[in-house]
């Protein structure tokens, strides 16, 4: 297999155009010609046309850029490490956490505290689980190490708080049972963004 | 101020709308109230249009689609502290915004703004009064309007010089340079249409262009039209020539130290001037208004077009340097205007 397909960088949707920049005229006649040319070029009206086109695009073709932030939010990358969530099993609705304690063990800022016990079926259950978000550095190790995809990073990225220590309880992080159908899987570490293909750009260098 | 009848002689004979002092008073109050409101609404329209052209939403939160933003701005302007700087010349500092607002509205006195109407008889006291479309139909209307707008330059000039602030001083210097220079272009460019019509009255301009689009003066005087528009942008301190208060260069220019309603008066004056220039351009070059049928709608649309053009240009074009502004005025526009006048004169003689 040759290396040609790896050396072909013309893969994106970007179209780079070399600008045809003229030199500044030196002679008076050249300057005069430039003035005349610029005077009778419709460039100013091209500018007007661009703004009008953008206005029509924004108003009638749904290309408005503004997001009314506190009420609307842009989706974030699946790799983003936001506030943690605890997921449930879709079939039974039981929480996924098996109480193995790996997240507590790997947490490098010691912010996860958990306690487990055996329930009546001799099955391990989580009796206490807190994350101190005042200490959490959002490294993502807990979500990466979890064997059951139980503790994950969610979509809530507003982490500002009124207190230094802010504990989150297990029940708070758990998906509400009535919103189980809305539960989203976490693509996590190494996931590509949904529009990754569109973001590939041709490198603007001459090879 | 002599108040003469608003209609031309032929229609004057047919029915005699008597212009009384009461009618002129009512007209003046209507102009003040409506143009102030439109000036306020103009700020909203400007913010919205600029936002749409940059694919933003603009004001959205005060009222439906931000429509009550004007009221919020008004409350803010009226209740803000009126600060007079320590080293400022206090009297001139406080009087300067009034000059801008007053001259802008005085100029509107000689401009046909809304169609004429008669107040119904059943209304007490003022019933049956004929309200003319022009508050004062001077026989030197255009000269008066341009003169008043020229006198408006004292507002920014005095404001900038009185406030003991270097940005204000630069703004004042630019005011003097820009407004005085572009007065020349405005006057010379509108001279050619005046020569063709042979009158300085807006009513005569209107009558001269009656009877369809083909009679509009813009077809006879396209150069004068373009020159007048360019100079009008400079006179109203609009974007390609907004050197007086360009915030990227001179903070806010002549308005740097102003706050509250004094700053608001500069704003209202600027928007009233925009409306005046739009009306002049519509009446002098684009056929003006016709008394019958939908004439009032057409003049509104023409004025709205010029107003929209000012916002549109602001969204699209960068502004020029002061030296480019002077170069444009004295080396390009002024010679073209003079040549235009000379050629018009030769054509009229032949």
**What is the name of the CATH class of the largest domain in chain A?**
Alpha Beta
The tally of beta strands of chain B, per DSSP, is 2
Q: Summarize the largest interface: chains and residue counts.
A: A-B, 16 and 13 residues
- The neighbouring-strand order within the major sheet of chain A is 2-3-5
Q: What summary fits the major beta sheet of chain A?
A: 3 strands, antiparallel
Q: Strand fraction band of chain A?
A: 5-15%
Which word captures the global form of chain A?
A: elongated
Category from helices, strands and their pairing of chain A? alpha+beta
The figure for the number of domains of chain A is: 2
> What is the percent of helical residues of chain B?
55-70%
Count up the helices of chain A. Answer: 6
Count of β-strands of chain A: 5
- Content of β-strand of chain B: under 5%
Query: What ranges of chain A have pLDDT less than 50 throughout 5 or more consecutive residues?
Result: none
Main pleated sheet of chain B: 2 strands, antiparallel
Summarize the structure.
The complex is a heterodimer of chains A (207) and B (350). Chain A has helices spanning 4-7, 28-40, 43-60, 102-106, 141-145, 170-173; strands at 84-86, 112-118, 124-132, 151-153, 167-169.
List keywords for this structure.
heterodimer; A: 207 residues; alpha+beta; Alpha-Beta Plaits; 3-stranded antiparallel beta sheet; two-stranded antiparallel sheet; 6 helices; 5 strands; 12% strand; elongated; B: 350 residues; mainly alpha; disordered N terminus
């Amino acid at each position: 297999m040759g290396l040609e397909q790896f050396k072909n960088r013309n893969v994106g949707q970007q179209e780079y155009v070399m600008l045809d920049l003229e030199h500044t005229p030196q002679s008076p006649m050249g300057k005069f010609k430039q003035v005349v040319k610029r005077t009778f070029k419709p460039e100013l009206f091209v500018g007007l046309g661009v703004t009008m086109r953008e206005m029509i695009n924004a108003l009638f073709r749904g290309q408005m850029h503004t997001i009314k932030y506190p009420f609307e939010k842009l989706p974030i990358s699946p790799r983003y490490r936001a506030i943690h969530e605890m997921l449930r099993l879709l079939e039974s609705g039981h929480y996924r956490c098996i109480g193995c304690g790996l997240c507590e063990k790997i947490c490098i800022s010691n912010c996860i505290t958990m306690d487990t016990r055996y329930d009546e079926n001799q099955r391990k259950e989580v009796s206490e689980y807190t994350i101190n978000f005042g200490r959490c550095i959002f490294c993502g190790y807990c979500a990466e190490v979890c064997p059951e995809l139980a503790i994950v990073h969610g979509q809530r990225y507003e982490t500002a708080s009124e207190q230094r220590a802010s504990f989150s309880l297990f029940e708070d992080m758990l998906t509400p049972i009535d919103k189980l159908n809305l539960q989203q899987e976490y693509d996590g570490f190494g996931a590509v963004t949904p529009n990754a293909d569109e973001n590939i750009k041709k490198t603007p260098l001459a090879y | 101020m002599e108040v003469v009848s608003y209609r031309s002689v032929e229609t004057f004979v047919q029915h005699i709308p008597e212009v009384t002092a009461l009618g002129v008073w009512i007209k003046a109050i209507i102009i003040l109230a409506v143009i102030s409101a439109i000036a306020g609404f103009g700020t909203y329209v400007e913010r919205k249009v600029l936002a749409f052209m940059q694919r933003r939403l603009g004001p959205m939160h005060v009222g439906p689609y931000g429509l009550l933003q004007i009221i919020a701005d008004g409350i803010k302007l009226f209740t803000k502290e009126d600060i007079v700087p320590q080293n400022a010349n206090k009297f001139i500092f406080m009087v300067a915004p009034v000059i801008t607002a007053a001259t802008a509205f005085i100029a509107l006195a000689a401009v046909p703004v809304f169609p004429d109407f008669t107040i119904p008889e059943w209304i007490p006291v003022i019933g049956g009064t004929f309200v003319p479309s022009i508050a004062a139909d001077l026989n030197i209307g255009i000269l008066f309007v341009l003169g008043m707008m020229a006198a408006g330059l004292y507002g920014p000039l005095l404001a900038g010089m009185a406030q003991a602030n270097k940005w204000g001083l630069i703004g004042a210097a630019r005011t003097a340079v820009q407004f005085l220079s572009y007065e020349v272009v405005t006057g010379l460019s509108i001279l050619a249409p005046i020569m063709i019509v042979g009158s300085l009255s807006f009513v005569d301009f209107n009558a001269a262009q009656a009877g369809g689009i083909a009679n509009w003066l813009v077809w006879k005087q396209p150069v004068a039209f373009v020159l007048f528009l360019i100079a009008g942008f400079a006179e109203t301190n609009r974007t390609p020539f907004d050197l007086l208060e360009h915030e990227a260069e001179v903070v806010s220019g002549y308005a740097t130290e102003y706050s509250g309603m004094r700053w608001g008066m500069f704003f209202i004056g600027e928007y009233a001037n925009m409306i005046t220039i739009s009306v002049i351009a519509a009446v002098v070059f684009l056929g003006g208004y016709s008394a019958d049928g939908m004439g009032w709608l057409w003049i509104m649309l023409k004025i709205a077009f010029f107003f929209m053009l000012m916002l549109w240009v602001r969204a699209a074009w960068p502004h020029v340097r002061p030296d480019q502004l002077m170069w444009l005025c004295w080396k390009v526009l002024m010679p073209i205007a003079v040549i235009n006048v000379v050629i018009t004169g030769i054509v009229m003689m032949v």
